From TrEMBL:
Region annotated Disordered, chain positions: 1-57
Signal peptide span: none
Ranges of biased composition (kind: Low complexity): 41-53
Protein name per the record: General transcription factor 2-related zinc finger protein
SMART domains found in the cross-reference section: ZnF_TTF
Compositional bias segments (type: Polar residues): 7-30
Limits of the TTF-type domain: 111-204
Coiled-coil intervals: none
Taxonomy, superkingdom: Eukaryota
Amino acid sequence: MKRSNTRDISSFFTKKSTTKNASQVQTSEENPIPEINITRAPQPSAQGSSPSVTIPPPVVDIVNLSHDPGKRKKLIDFHPNERDLVRRMYIQRGPCQPVDHVFPKTLFGTKERRFNVKWFDSSWRPWLEYSVFKDAAFCFICYLFKAENTAGGDAFVSEDFKAWNRIETIRDHVGKHTSSHNNAVIAMELFTKQKGSIVTALSKQTDEIMSAYRKRLEASITAIRWLLILQIDLLPLIKVN
């Protein structure tokens, strides 16, 4: 005879207790685990990087351009779009030639020498400059138009010439026809003529435009006058009809 002692299948599985220890619950409540918030860095747009912003070049301060060659900013240090404006301003001013200045003396060996104001009245007048600030001579034309990386004449451009006992150095600065100084002279003449030709062309064009405008205006006035006369002549006929 079979035994009736049958056990339910659920009795073979024991449930784990979910009841926490009181001390563990208390500790958890007193020292809760802090939440960690992870903030991601903003990612670049998938459409590409932001467009670059072009900063315009600074406007040259024309008023404060130093006339003293010893205080001038190098022309190459100006923005390329400003250099022609700087050249025009200095050409209008002309070379720095302080004729009333008391030139200091410098001892060379046993003799004292100084800059001679009469040099401004010589053939060097178009280009020779004197810096009161540095007590030195400079070349006005080479400063404005000497080609970059050209040898020769640096003593009168980037450096300062003050060897008053070596007047032949001033004389030799001009050099031959193909010297850097004479090339600068040619560049200055072309620059001045180009400016003059542009102004002349604009002035001529303006005159032509004004002349054509006057002709058209006169023709319009004449046409209006004839229309008025014609209308006056036809007025009696219009009334009769």
